[in-house]
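Action item from last week, closing it out:
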Amino acid sequence: MTAIGSRLPRGTRVVVATRNPGKVGEFRRLLGASGWEVLGLDALPGGADAAWDEDADSYLANAAIKARAAVAATGVVVLADDSGLELDACGGWPGVRSARWLGPDASDADRVEAVRARVAGLAPGQRGAAFVCALALAAPGPGGQPALLETVESRVRGLLLAAPRGAAGFGYDPLFVPEGHTTTMAELAPLAKDRLSHRGRAVAALLQRLASG
């Protein structure tokens, strides 16, 4: 399908460029008010073959790489995100490599434990951090070539704990306490997390742009 301008009508099929079921579920919830049909990448023919190298040095550039690759593979509208955790005391590490720095076979639990070990020796005042989310929305353009429609980026400040808490969410959620709160992202109910999270804020900004575009 092709998009008209930068607006997507209700009923548009939008594929989230990820194979992470937790992320697909979160995007489906966040985009509930859009009226779009939100699917995971592997739900469409060609989606299983979509591949990309996230080798850019910014979240927005990596999100755009994923979005274009997924559009080329599926031929439908794609929403891609690149998210990361930035620890102030480590110069913003792990940053854009948050999902990859520990190697391709590492699980969420492995990465949480490795970050926990890194911050365990830091005083609470040195554990300032940020969650960052960049979104890229793309669609087939003239000749079927992928075309970017919108990009947004959002961040949420907080601090990291020396030990994980909570069983909800995914990624580094069990370690991250949003600024002004006492619970981790993994302890929050889904709707509460949506209001606070970097991904929730990025989706809200994207929908606002589309509504006014």
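Closing note: Confidence is low (pLDDT under 50) at residues 1-6.
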